[in-house]
Amino acid sequence: MGSRTWWVLGAIAMVVGGSAVRADQDERVFTRVRAADDQFRLLIREGDARSTTFRAMVDEIQQSNALVMVQFGLCAKGQVRSCVSHVGGDARTRTIRILINPRTTNDRLIATIAHELQHALEIIRQPEITNGEQVMQLYRRIGTGKCAEGRSDRCETEAALAVERQVLRELEG
pTM higher than 0.70, yes or no? Predict the structure, then answer.
């Protein structure tokens, strides 16, 4: 995990009831959840529109001091479908980068994004976490299996798995 910082220039927006909207239209503007390309931008919008769970997670991130960037990438040389690949910043502003392998259906991709947004929220809810080392300490406490036992750096939480299942149910319903 590196220490690269993301700089973001966005459209002028105002906050209305906790959600950012463009002044000239009703479309929600995501100032804290960003996509590195059009495919992920559309998937985030679709997840936000079709899943109340996804939308609630985006809303919580929008209220945080973190910028979450979702982009194409391979985790563990393609052995893992998605991951948090970077956490950096300081007490004022944090950045979290999420990598996702897009080789699946749109609904599964949206559920995978939700899974990783849950991991981002687990980090965001701990304001003292500003780097990869602190993230690993967090997942040693809240993770499951080999990660919690200190035998693996591939960490998972029951909450992220549950969110993924819930969002998939909402998308299918």
Answer: yes
